[in-house]
Structure formats: structure tokens, C-alpha cells
From TrEMBL:
<comment type="similarity">
    <text>Belongs to the FAD-dependent glycerol-3-phosphate dehydrogenase family.</text>
</comment>
<keyword id="KW-0285">Flavoprotein</keyword>
<protein>
    <submittedName>
        <fullName>FAD-dependent oxidoreductase</fullName>
    </submittedName>
</protein>
<dbReference type="InterPro" id="IPR006076">
    <property type="entry name" value="FAD-dep_OxRdtase"/>
</dbReference>
<keyword id="KW-0274">FAD</keyword>
<keyword id="KW-0560">Oxidoreductase</keyword>
<feature type="domain" description="FAD dependent oxidoreductase">
    <location>
        <begin position="17"/>
        <end position="335"/>
    </location>
</feature>
<dbReference type="InterPro" id="IPR036188">
    <property type="entry name" value="FAD/NAD-bd_sf"/>
</dbReference>
<dbReference type="InterPro" id="IPR000447">
    <property type="entry name" value="G3P_DH_FAD-dep"/>
</dbReference>
<dbReference type="Pfam" id="PF01266">
    <property type="entry name" value="DAO"/>
</dbReference>
<dbReference type="InterPro" id="IPR038299">
    <property type="entry name" value="DAO_C_sf"/>
</dbReference>
């Protein structure tokens, strides 16, 4: 298990084979695959685990129909195989889920085009799950959907997860395989010495500076990769935002792919942990990269416009939005000045000055991305790479998390965050701040109308006792949390 946050001084002087920089899904995957090879691995995360893009995705573990539409059969097949693997190996966390693609008179793609695409999609995954739903059946299933010219819908399955819990779960497995993982540890500089690398780190909890040395370094810092890569910039940061709406106002049981009335872009409307989520947008992210990303008001308006258009009887306005969430896609730039949605979404691995950098890709394909990075770093050879790609099981060690923590009805609601669960989270998952607990260990902050502030007030004594916070620290944490919600999740 991840366990308590180690004292950084314990890390100094140890002989690390590999330091992984970045505690999103990519870094977690690299740490897992490397530790399972018997390497001595240290993972360092500047903020909290999954603080970056990996807690802000559309929560889909998917092949990506758009990749197939773009003719990228290899990427689609790879993603679908990984989807099936995650469904098998993490059944409590990754769930098969129905997606509906409504078809209207004259809409593109029509029923035939979708049938052909989904036949190929299912074939690549080795399943047969797609089918046509008549307009009548669709009206019963989705009574709020706009009826005009509705012909029916293509139904198919993909999978859905809780992305930040997925990162934590992979980190638990990495730790069980021997990796050491530390959050709030910013790598400021990487120096190459004769036989090893020297990493200059600042502990973000107490401000202390220290150094560790390692044989190899993999820079898995997502949208921030260019800051440590030693090479010319590769990433085009693209922001994608979501809004969370009360399920009472917009109840959905399936996920819908709906064309936006302004530009035809597909937008998802899906049920998640008891609320309805709508997203995403796709914009060049030009805000300060050191600031947490937030959904700009024009993005919120854009998503509400889609809802009003697709579900005309639903009366919604800005005040109904429970919360927003924005993430920055680390898209490898083509350098051709394409529109954001035309840029390819696959990952890249490159080396410069001995540092291997990896960025781009998807949540779904983290295992393949990790193997590519390990091969580029010379930590596995071609033969091992081929074997590992085909290995039947990814997760070698058993890891037990409290019942319900990762299920959709679990600890995401305030009443499920009991004293016992809180103690477990503090002992096993290194929450340092209140926002770690309420935005990434659980989702109370995203999913409750008050962002969990009421729960915090009611449970002040418990929080202070379990986290050993005095009055002053508790008050500082509450203020910090209020600010974060107001500025980045409102
Ligand atoms: C809106 C949106 C929707 C998406 N939807 C999906 C989806 O449905 N399905 C899917 O498969 N994929 C999806 N993706 C893609 C997926 O979320 C990302 O590809 C993936 O999360 C990237 O993970 P990462 O670990 O590379 O980056 P991140 O999760 O950003 O992790 C990088 C980490 O590095 C840390 N870091 C930065 N600098 C330093 C430093 N100096 N020292 C230490 N640590 C540092 C950061 O704090 C961060 O936590 C989506 C992306 C977006 C933006």
C-alpha cells in the first residue's frame, strides 16, 4: 500500500534505479511496471497524486471511437485491449457502461455508418455489444431527449471509472511491488553526473530542499513535461472542461454522445457518482501553467447550451451547476497549427540528455505508455517489452481497499466518509491537505452542492484528531479549501 508519507530525508542516500517524476496515471503506471521488474523505484509528485489531468478526465476507459473514425486502427485496438484488461483486473473500479449515439433524420454519421464503425470497434475488442435502439424504445429510455427528427440510437459499451481512484489504486499496486511514492515533492532540476542523475527536490510541505541520485529518470509530468525534458517544447496544452449537474434536474442512466448545436463537436452527457456530468470543451490553454486549471465562463455557457438544446424541457441555468472541473490535455503538437480537436491524441516518448520524457496519450493506455517509457530508458529490452505487452495479468500483488471506497455509491457522498474510512485514508494514502481528501481521495468536493463544507464543519473534531491538526491548521486548511473551490471548481 502507499502508506504514510515518508520523511524525505529517508530518501536521500538510497540507491535508486529509477526516479519517476509525476504522480498522474502515466507516472503511476511507470512506477508499477518498473517495480514489478524488481527495480528500486522512487516516484515524486509535486502536488497531490492525480492533481493534474488524471483527476479531470471524462472518466472513460475506452477505445476511442474518434480514433477509429480517423482511421487509427492500431491506437483503437490497443486502447480496447487495455479497456478489456482493466475491466477484468479492476472490476470494482472500472465498469462496463452503455453509450448511446442518437441518430436524427439527415444526421451524420447515420445508422449505417455507425453500425459499420461499431462492428469494427466491437470486433477489435473481441466483444459484440452494439445494437440499434428504435425511436420508441429510446423515448422510453430517455424521455427528456429532444424528439425532433429522432430516428433512434446506436447503443454500444465502453467503460467508466473514477480517474483519481484509478491512479491511487495503481500506486497502491506499485508500492506493494516495492516502489516508494511521495507526494508534495517538486523536482526542480535534474543534473546528469558521470554514472547517475542528481535530482534537486523541494518538499512542498516544509519547504526543505534535498537531493536524490538515481541511475535513470523518467519525466512523466504530463502537460508540464517540457519544463524538465531538456529539449524543445513538444506539448500543446489543450484545456477540457466539464460541468456537474444535479441528477434530479437532468436524470440519465446511459452516456449520450451529442453534437453541439454551435459547432457539431461531440459532447458527452453521462451519469457519474449520482450526478450528471457534461463535457468536454477543447481550447488552447494559455493560462499560467503553475495555476490550477479552471473552466472559463464561456465553456460553462457552451456546455449549458448543449444541454438546453438536447434536452429542451429541462430548465437549467448557471446557478444549477454543482461544480465545474477543468483539465489540461498534454497533446503532442503536430506543429501544423491544426484546430485543437484535429490534433492526434497518442503519446510520445523521447530522450534528451539522458532524461526520458513521456507525455500525451490517454488514461486508458497507461500500461502501454509505461512500457514504451521503460524501453526507451533501457530498463527493459525488446524481448521483455514484447513479453510484458502480452502478459495476461498486469497486477501481480493483491491490494485491498475498504469496501465501497471505489464503487460509484461508495465514499463519494459525505455520509460514507466515516471515522474508520477517514483513518484508513490518512494511514494509507498520504492526504496532506483537506482538498486531497475531498477532491481526489473522495469526490465530495465535486459532487455536493456545498462542496463538502458542511461535512467539514460537522466533522471538525474528527478531522483535527485523525490528521493531528490544531485549531490554527484546521482554519488554514478550511480557508485554503474554500479558495480552491471558489477559484477552480465553481
Ligand atoms: C478534459 C479531458 C478529458 C479526458 N478524458 C479522457 C477519458 O475519458 N479517457 C481517457 O483515457 N483519457 C482521457 N483524457 C486524457 C487523460 O486524462 C490524460 O492523458 C492523462 O490523465 C495524463 O496523465 P499524466 O500522468 O500524463 O499527466 P497528469 O495527470 O497531469 O500528471 C502529471 C503530474 O506531474 C506532476 N508534476 C508536474 N511537474 C512536476 C515536478 N516538477 N515535479 C514533480 N511532479 C510534477 C503534476 O503535478 C501532475 O500531477 C482526458 C483529458 C482531458 C483533459
Amino acid at each position: 500500500m502507499i502508506g504514510l508519507r515518508p520523511d524525505p530525508q529517508q530518501l536521500v542516500g538510497q540507491a535508486w534505479d529509477l526516479v519517476v517524476v509525476g504522480g498522474g496515471i502515466t507516472g503511476a503506471g511507470v512506477a508499477l511496471m518498473a517495480a514489478q521488474q524488481g527495480l528500486r523505484v522512487l516516484l515524486l509528485e509535486k502536488q497531490d497524486y492525480a492533481w493534474g489531468t488524471s483527476s479531470r478526465s471524462s472518466k472513460m476507459v475506452h477505445g476511442g471511437l474518434r480514433y477509429l473514425a480517423q482511421g487509427d486502427v492500431r491506437l483503437t485496438r490497443e486502447s480496447l485491449q487495455e479497456r478489456e484488461r482493466l475491466l477484468r483486473e479492476l472490476p470494482d473500479l472500472v465498469h462496463r457502461h452503455t453509450y448511446l449515439f442518437p441518430v436524427r433524420k439527415g444526421s451524420f454519421p447515420g445508422r449505417l455508418g455507425l453500425s459499420v464503425a461499431l462492428m469494427g470497434y466491437d470486433f477489435l475488442a473481441g466483444i459484440r455489444d452494439h445494437r440499434w435502439i428504435s425511436a420508441r424504445a429510446l423515448r422510453q429510455r430517455a424521455p427528456l431527449l429532444k424528439l425532433k427528427q429522432l430516428r433512434g440510437a446506436m447503443s454500444y459499451t465502453d467503460a467508466v471509472t473514477d480517474d483519481s481512484r484509478l491512479v491511487l489504486r495503481i500506486l497502491h499496486h506499485a508500492a506493494a511491488a516495492g516502489a516508494t511514492v511521495v507526494n508534495y515533492s517538486a523536482v526542480q532540476r535534474i543534473e546528469r553526473a558521470a554514472q547517475h542523475f542528481q535530482l534537486h527536490i523541494q518538499d512542498q510541505v516544509n519547504g526543505a530542499n534535498y537531493q536524490v541520485s538515481s541511475q535513470k529518470v523518467i519525466n512523466a509530468t504530463g502537460a508540464w513535461v517540457d519544463q524538465l525534458s531538456n529539449s524543445s517544447p513538444r506539448v500543446r496544452p489543450l484545456r477540457g472542461s466539464h460541468i456537474f449537474l444535479p441528477a434530479e434536474l437532468l436524470p440519465v442512466t446511459d452516456s449520450y454522445t451529442l453534437p453541439h448545436p454551435d459547432d457539431g463537436r461531440p459532447v458527452f452527457v453521462f451519469p457519474w457518482h449520482g450526478v450528471t456530468c457534461v463535457g468536454t470543451t477543447d481550447h488552447d490553454h494559455t493560462d499560467d501553467p503553475q495555476q490550477e486549471a479552471y473552466a472559463h465562463e464561456h465553456e460553462v455557457r457552451y456546455l449549458l447550451t448543449l444541454v438546453r438544446h438536447a434536452f429542451p424541457s429541462v430548465q437549467l441555468d448557471r446557478s444549477d451547476v454543482i461544480s465545474t472541473m477543468a483539465g489540461v490535455r498534454p497533446v503532442i503538437s503536430s506543429g501544423k497549427g491544426l484546430k485543437p480537436s484535429q490534433e492526434r491524441r497518442d503519446h510520445a516518448v523521447w530522450e534528451s540528455g539522458g532524461v526520458v520524457s513521456v507525455s500525451g496519450g490517454k488514461l486508458t493506455t497507461f500500461r502501454i505508455i509505461a512500457l514504451d517509457a521503460l524501453k526507451a530508458a533501457g530498463l527493459i529490452d525488446e524481448r521483455q517489452y514484447r513479453q510484458l505487452r502480452k502478459q495476461p495479468r498486469m497486477l501481480a500483488n493483491a491490494v485491498t481497499v475498504p469496501a465501497g471506497l471505489e464503487s460509484p455509491a461508495g465514499a463519494v457522498s459525505a455520509e460514507h466518509l466515516t471515522a474508520t474510512l477517514l483513518r484508513w485514508l490518512v494511514a494509507q494514502e498520504q492526504p496532506v491537505h483537506l482538498d486531497d481528501l475531498l477532491l481526489r481521495r473522495t469526490r465530495i468536493g465535486n459532487l455536493t452542492a456545498d462542496g463538502g463544507r458542511g461535512w467539514v464543519r460537522t466533522n471538525q473534531a474528527l478531522l483535527q484528531q485523525v490528521l493531528a491538526w490544531d485549531e490554527e491548521r484546521f482554519s488554514a486548511e478550511s480557508n485554503r479549501y474554500d479558495q480552491i473551490l471558489k477559484l477552480y471548481y465553481n
